[in-house]
Amino acid sequence: MRYFSLAGLVGLLWLAAGSASAHDDSRWHRHEYKRDYRGEYRSEYRRNNNLPITTVAEARRLADDSRIILSGHIVRRLDDDEYLFRDGTGTIKVEMDDDHWRTLRRHRRDRLLLWAEVERDKRRVTLEVERVRPAGR
Question: What is the rounded CA–CA span in Å between residue 73 and residue 133?
């Protein structure tokens, strides 16, 4: 009886270790992909950090996936991650993660700089915000 219990215990441990290592392996690849993607994106913005400030009117005419920097104000929150952004030339809808907005709550009345990517649908142009900070810093 003791022999079967020990064999069963060893078998269960072996199965548990195998499934845990397979799970960690898949998470490692997913984490590695995200880290590489973010690093690539950050380096792209570092190279383009000296881009001129684009206006909302100009952003509406740009091609899909264009990367731009805007200066203006958040007018109001539309949805969970959608906001209305305004500069002197017009307003546009921007999609911004909540963690970006949480860090800027105390600066919501100040002028902001947005690093964004133009997302063009059939009739709509929105901006996917990748980085945001107060303009005075």
Answer: 11
Residue 84 tokens, joined: 């209305």
Give 33-73 pLDDT, tens digit per residue: 344 444 444 454 455 566 788 999 999 999 999 999 999 99
- Say what the pTM is: 0.61
Q: What is the dihedral of CA 30, 31, 35, 41, to 10 degrees?
A: 40
b vs e for 35-70, b when ≥16 Cβ sit within 10 Å of the residue's Cβ?
eeeeeeeeeeeeeeeeeeebbbeebeebeeebbbbb
Name 129's bridge partners. 116
Cα 60–65–66 angle (5° rounding)?
Answer: 60
* Dist CA 59 CA 66 (whole Å): 9
